[in-house]
Amino acid sequence: MYREEVIAKALREHREKLNAELLKNRSRQKELNEHLTEHQLAIRTLSTLVKGKSSPTERTTPGQVPLPTAAPPVGVTTAPAAARPAEVAVWAPERKGYTRDKLKAVAFPHIQSRFANEPFEVSKVRDLLDELEPEVSHTYEAAWNLCNDMLREGKLKQAGIRKLPKGIVRLFVLKSSAAGNRPAAKANTVLAEG
Fold first, then answer.
1. Is the torsion defined by CA of 8, 10, 12, 14 positive or negative?
2. Does 120 map to a domain?
3. pTM metric for this prediction
4. How far apart are the C-alpha atoms of 147 and 119, rounded to whole Å?
5. pLDDT (tens place) for every residue of the chain, 194 residues total
């Protein structure tokens, strides 16, 4: 029983200490909010006088502080309008090269002429894109997306897969040449049916 009384007393003392700190912090917060409101008012007054936006009747004599039209509520800690940072302009480099749709429109005739009768890989399309736009470094992913888009649109057909030590590479063929004679498959190529 004695132990429980000691613990209860310690908890009571700790609670009283925390309540005292809370009251002290609340009064300090109120003082700081009042101080902040005064500074906000002074900054607004100075900024309107400097910018010349106030009319002569609104101007005050030296030492007189004008009253705000709508005082901010106590406890609200917003930065004054003059002290708020301006929006930062984000610099982005100008994009070089074609957009995805424009690239598809430009690249497809070249794909047709270069790969009319033979299967090709995504890496070959990437090389073609680099030839078309030498100022832009094309990624393998861009060529992959281009091939997949043309596959979905029915311009290309998957002709097969090539098994390499690093993985499987898909082979594509133009839809128009897919109906005709297929070229002879290489030793490590599996042609897809249909």
1. negative
2. yes
3. 0.43
4. 12
5. 788 999 999 999 999 999 999 999 999 999 999 988 888 888 888 877 777 654 444 555 555 555 555 555 555 555 555 555 555 555 555 556 667 788 888 888 999 999 888 899 999 999 998 898 888 888 888 889 889 999 999 999 998 988 888 888 889 999 875 444 444 444 444 444 43
Helices vs strands, H then E, count in the chain: 5, 3
- As a whole number of angstroms, the distance between CA 120 and CA 183 comes to 11
Domain with 149, as residue range(s), is: 100-191
Q: For residue 187, is it within any domain? A: yes
Where does a domain end: 19, 53, 83?
A: 83
Cα 15 from Cα 10, distance rounded (Å): 9
Ramachandran angles phi, psi of 168, nearest 5°:
-100, 135
Any domain includes 107 = yes
The answer on 78 and 105 residing in a single domain is no
- Element housing 172 (H / E): strand 167-174
Spatial separation of the C-alpha atoms in residues 159 and 118, rounded to whole Å: 10
